[in-house]
Automatic annotation (TrEMBL):
Superkingdom of origin: Bacteria
Source lineage: Bacteria, Bacillati, Cyanobacteriota, Cyanophyceae, Nostocales
InterPro entries: Nuclease_put_TT1808, Restrct_endonuc-II-like, Uma2
Protein name in UniProt: Uma2 family endonuclease
Residue ranges of domain Putative restriction endonuclease in the record: 13-169
GO molecular function: endonuclease activity
Organism: Anabaena subtropica FACHB-260
Keyword field: Endonuclease, Hydrolase, Nuclease
Record-linked PANTHER family: GLR1098 PROTEIN, RESTRICTION ENDONUCLEASE DOMAIN-CONTAINING PROTEIN-RELATED
Amino acid sequence: MVASPDRNYMSPQEYLEWEERQDIKYEYVNGEVFAMTGGTLPHNDIALNLATSLKTHLRGGLCRVNMSDAKVGVSDNGSFHYPDVVVSCDDRDRQAIKFLQYPCLIVEVLSPSTEAYDRGAKFKQYRRIQTLKEYVLIDAEKINLDCFRLNENGIWELYSYEEGNEVYLQSVDFRFPISLVYEDVFLG
């Protein structure tokens, strides 16, 4: 993610209108826009593996699964991000065209340059989404998956999974071996 050279602050509506005219995607945080940079092939393969498996698991139900071209709005006045994988099971998102607002699951595949942001400031933004139940971070350099899950007391709990573990995504009632997300992925 790279800050736009034009440091003019925009309202959320100005951002949405402006971004439609751009050749690349931009995230929007606190009035500023940030260009989205491309990821590595392992990053893409991991996201695709999970999105494909989620789509198969949720087929025929009310949930929709989207990948990195799907924008998520944190609030009417808030940030807009492009997570690697997002699932919404909320009726209000069923007819969404420009962005989702009510996801239950958000997944980010980590890269060394974005890991601190994804774990910190971005997760802080995502926690403002009332419908979000799980936030998953997947390492693109080694077999590791961290799932932050909102418990019944409103506290985010961390569940870490490593090689050989079975992952459970409670928000969509999906169990799978961690190897599924790393299928055909070369970890350099």
